[in-house]
Amino acid sequence: MTTDAAHDPRAPRAAASVVHYADEADLIVVGYGAAGASCAIEAATEGAEVLVVERASAGGGTSANSGGLIYVGGGTALQSALGFEDTPEEMFKYLMAACGPGPDEKLVAPFAEHSVAHFDWLVEQGLVFKEAFFPGAHEPETDESLTYSGSEDCHPFCEIAKPAPRGHFASVMGSKGAILMKTLMASAQRRRVRVRGDTLAERLIVESDGRVVGVVVRSAGEERCLRARRGVALTSGGFIWNEEMLEQHAPWLRRCKMKVGTENDDGSGIQMGIAAGAATIRMDAADITLPVFPPVSFREGMLVNCQGQRFLNEDAYMGRWGEISLLHQDGRVWLVVDEPSFGQPKHIPDIEVVAGDSIAELEGEMGLPTGSLQQSAAFYNEHAARGEDPLFHKRAEYLRPLSQPPFGAIDLLPENSVYCAFTLGGFHIDADGRVQTPGGEAIPGLYAAGRTTSGISKQGYSSGISLGDGSFFGRRAGRAAATAPT
Ligand SMILES: Cc1cc2nc3c(=O)[nH]c(=O)nc-3n(C[C@H](O)[C@H](O)[C@H](O)COP(=O)(O)OP(=O)(O)OC[C@H]3O[C@@H](n4cnc5c(N)ncnc54)[C@H](O)[C@@H]3O)c2cc1C
Question: Is residue 163 within 6 Å of ligand 1 at its C-beta?
């Protein structure tokens, strides 16, 4: 732990040096997004007095701007009503396969086991889910409430775990993230959670034995100390807007044109915790989405690298497209389509396309080695005609020989396309949101959840996991803090 040094703006303040506390509560929650709201609700439900500090004028954070998709499953009431079978065991198997490398079983197991109850809790807070399934490969603008939001139903995951749709949306035609946050904040308000807006948390306050007992905040230019009788929860989002942290941990994310988050995702909470002795893990991990769908017809195309070779089944989730393209192919990838499979991607307005009347001509336009794309296309087409994909096992419904000119290649280089990224690395927590030291011990009085932590996804991502694990572990952190001894 660093000392209260003037040169480190995040260094903790020694409790012994605090002469006056401007306010106090059992639990102080830093950041009022989905993780913070869930934490506050649960702690208040357990009888704790909760104070939330939020640097923006009002709560919501990135969560309110999000698509509102929440990853829950294992046999939720909505899954069952729509005829989809799921169990905690199948959900666990999928997450362990899809959220790696190296997902933390200690987090994934309770997340899967208690997912049905977490869905029921979301309903109890006031979210309404409609018994309607959305079959698309992207987020709906309609009001259906259940969808496949990852790669559950395609290779290799469909062979590892029985596929089930686990992306749950509140049923609303407008912003689903806004409804989520409105509902959670209304629930917190009913439980008398107090919120201080326009209040930036700058440092933690710690006792000489390392226990976290408060927060130093800045509001209207004035510094104030707030005392936390049972603990502080850091739920202040990730660090996609902190260029220095990106440069240090994941410089490749700087190539992604769309930073998925508000500018308050600047890593301030993570820095405060590190200065108080917290361990961070997997700081290089991120959701990297390449939003190619719609049109879903792109799944009939061939995603190739700069050697003209396929490297992924094109029916995979868009987060998998982005992750594998950027991290394993340096982003030097193209989507090859023919006339029926072409369309204007809704979320990549300025696409760069080269065209040819034959695959050979297209190959030349793309500047690929002669014969490379032709060989890939010949092999692909031969098997696609039989509904087979021996290399990557794309589902038969998307297999059709690419044979109808003109042919096109969409340039998916990050600089010519739109990769969307937010960070997934952060505090090492246990299943009750207790922040760990590098030695693996819980820091007394310090809790965290959401993108301030390394949660369920250690790199591989499926839509809804961020709001899913943020709300789930936010609740667990709130409960643990509320029931901790003073
Ligand atoms: C367009 C878009 C669509 C998305 N769609 C989905 C989706 O459908 N499903 C999904 O799971 N994820 C989605 N995401 C990602 C998801 O929204 C975020 O990862 C998630 O909301 C993070 O939640 P959080 O509670 O950890 O942080 P946030 O919701 O960002 O909350 C953190 C809060 O902390 C505050 N804060 C920060 N620093 C301080 C400080 N020092 N002092 C006081 N307050 C502070 C911030 O102002 C903010 O209000 C989407 C994101 C975007 C932008």
Answer: no
Dump pLDDT digits (tens) for 100-111. Answer: 999 999 999 999
d(CA 197, CA 264): 13
pLDDT one-digit tens code per residue, 425-462: 999 999 999 999 999 999 999 999 999 999 999 999 99
Please tell us whether the domain made up of 291-416 is placed in CATH 3.90.700.10.
Answer: yes
Q: How far is the CA of 415 from the centre of ligand 1 (A)?
A: 25
Closest CA to 86 of 118, 56, 115: 115
Ligand 1 neighbourhood includes 301 CB (under 6 angstroms): no
Enumerate the H helices of 25-101 as residue ranges. 34-45, 61-65, 77-81, 88-98
For ligand 1, atom 35, name the residue with the nearest CA: 31
Task: Give the E-state strand segments of 370-433 in sequence order.
Answer: 407-411, 420-423, 426-427
CATH tag for 1-286+422-486 (out of 3.50.50.60, 3.40.50.1000, 3.30.300.30, 3.10.129.10): 3.50.50.60
Which mutation among 30, 62, 266 tests ligand 1's pocket best, with the greatest number of atoms within 8 A of CB?
62
Task: Name residue, tokens 């102080």.
Answer: 28
Q: Where are the beta strands (DSSP E) in 332-478?
A: 333-337, 353-356, 407-411, 420-423, 426-427, 434-436, 442-448
CA of 63 to the centre of ligand 1 (A): 4
Rounded to the nearest angstrom, the distance between the alpha carbon of 405 and the centre of ligand 1 is 44
Expressed in angstroms and rounded, the spacing between residue 206 Cα and the centre of ligand 1 is 26
Q: What is the pTM of this model?
A: 0.97
Please tell me the residue having the least CA distance from ligand 1 atom 27. Answer: 237
For residue 8, CA distances in Å to 126, 162, 216 come to: 43, 50, 14
Residue type, 276: A
| Three-state secondary-structure class, residue 230 | strand
Ligand 1 lined by 30 (C-beta under 6 Å): yes
Quote the CA–CA distance of 185 and 41 in Å, as a whole number: 8
Domain ranges of the chain: 1-286+422-486, 291-416
